[in-house]
Amino acid sequence: MCATEAAPDRLQELLAFDATKSGVKGLADAGITKLPRIFVHSPDDLPSPPSLAGLKVPVIDLRGVADDARRRKEAVEQIRDASSSWGLFQLVNHGVPPQILEGMLQGSRRFHELPKEVKAKLYSRDLKQNVKYACNYDLFLSGAANWRDTFSCNFSTTLNPQDIPDVCRDEILAYGEHMLGLAESVYELLSEALGLSPSHLKSINLSKGHFVRAHYYPPCPEPELTLGTSKHCDPSFLTLLIEDELGGLQVRHEGHWVDVSPVPGAVVVNIGDLLQIISNGKFKSVEHRVLANRLGPRLSVAMFFVGVREGNYLYGPIKEILSENVAPKYREILLEEYFQVFASRGLGTESILSHFTL
Questions:
Q1: Per-residue pLDDT tens digits for 100-119
Q2: Is 101 helix (H, G, I), strand (E, B) or coil?
Q3: What share of the chain is helix, strand, coil (3-state, %, to 5)?
Q4: What mean pLDDT do residues 209-225 have?
Q5: Pair 61, 267: CB distance under 8 Å
Q6: Number of domains into which the chain is organized
Q7: Could you tell me if residue 96 is inside a domain?
Q8: What is the per-residue DSSP string for 159-201?
Q9: Domain at 230, CATH number
Q10: Residue 165 and residue 144: Cα distance in Å, rounded?
Q11: What are the pLDDT digits (tens) for 84-96?
């Protein structure tokens, strides 16, 4: 049941919480010791029994891939294996300077720890607003809210850099530039992993349409009752994520939840739904979630690459990987159709890929 179909008193609680414009940090700052019921999740969605220990998410070293053919071949094979079996992996020696990554995390922290009256000026649920802050984009759709606030910046052609708060403006702009470069490098390796020319995925505009979500997870008084982020698959072609040392990110692998242990300086790569579609299922979009914690704050920053949403640009299985013996598994779609389906449901629901399966 979505929140708008819930009991009227629950809807009133959601409206009252949203009207504060202070997010979950406001609740944490108020010193609450009991979790408001709008954040309490069903026991079926909470992490019990414990996650499987022993399995480790692939960590792939990109050192030398630009000028050493042997290293590049190894990295392509590792990325092919990780993208087809895990759907998520970590990159080290990726070329993005550590100070850029740390600067972005600290810039995010400075924004989220501004006085609530300052942040409230940017609090919005307007999907067309390039720079904004909110608590749970799906607050009125999901069955239970997540313990997380989010600052968003959409790198669209209409973005005015002066709209980004000065406490994090320089950091976001530098981060966006470096992560775009890394995404293009990853797309080259993914193209080769599909048996295509290195430029193929870039040539179909997968680097265009990107935005940042800087998440802030305050200490939670009852983390056993809620989640930082509910299970979901990413609505993107590719997601690049950095996180601090606190951890809490988990990925679903072979029916088990596996911890994505933080690696200093690493960038986490998620295969999104849209890349699963155009790779005809060769690469897998994967469920992941974030646990709540009594410690904190936890900081993470995700950059999503979503392609071209305007006009009649269709995305479907890449024709060069199809043949008489390999039929398309998905139909061609407009991205606007995909995002309409995604936006109609809250996190924690089942994958929407079935809507586009042939």
A1: 999 999 999 999 999 999 99
A2: helix
A3: 35, 20, 45
A4: 97
A5: no
A6: 1
A7: yes
A8: --GGGS-TTTHHHHHHHHHHHHHHHHHHHHHHHHHTTS-TTHH
A9: 2.60.120.330
A10: 30
A11: 999 999 999 999 9
